[in-house]
Amino acid sequence: MGEAVKVVAKNSKAYHDYFVEEKFEAGIELAGTEVKSIRLGNVNLKDSFCIIKEGQLSVLGMHISPYEKGNIFNKDPRRPRRLLMHRREILRLSGRIQQDGYSLIPLSVYFKGPRVKLELGLAKGKKLYDKRESSAKRDAKREIDRAMKTRNR
Question: What residue spans carry the region label Disordered (predicted)?
Fold first, then answer.
C-alpha cells in the first residue's frame, strides 16, 4: 500500500510555456518553518526553474511565504533550495539539459507521507505559434464537447 499523496501547488503555466517530455520526482532540502508554510499551501512555483551546478541540483525562483508563527527561524522566501536525487539521475539530467533547448521545470509540490516532494519536468520551450496552436486545439475540443452535450439532451 503506497503513501498518501497530497498536492499542494501546481505550476499550470509550465504546460502553457513548455512541452513536458519526461517527469521526475525529487526531494527538497527545507527548513522546518518552510515545511509548515508549505503545509498551509503558501508556495508559488510561477517563474521557477532548476539548475545543475557542480553535481548539485537546485531550484531557483520558488517562493515559499514566511510562516506567520516562525519569527526568527524564517528563511528568505526566494532562496535557492537544494533538490535531492540520486547522483546518476542528476548526471543523466545534466546530459539532457546540455542538449538544445531542454530545461528542468518544477511542475508541482506535494506531500508523500510526511515528506515534501517536487515533481520536475524535462521540458522544451514552446514558440509563440506552438502556444497559439495548442490554445486553438483546446478551444476546438471545448466547442465539440459543448455541441455533443447539447445534442445528447
Answer: 131-153
pLDDT mean by block of 10 residues, the chain; 153 residues: 71 76 83 78 80 81 75 68 83 78 83 83 74 79 82 72
What pLDDT does residue 72 have? 65
Residue 77 in 3-state DSSP? coil
Residues 6+ away with beta carbon under 8 Å from 36: 67, 69, 70
Give the whole-angstrom CA distance, residue 116 versus residue 28: 7
* Distance between CA atoms of residues 119 and 47, nearest Å: 15
| Domain regions of the chain by residue span | 5-126
Q: Please provide the CATH number assigned to the domain covering 5-126.
A: 2.40.280.10
Show Cβ contacts of residue 117 under 8 Å, excluding neighbours closer than 6 positions.
25, 26, 27, 28, 109, 110, 111
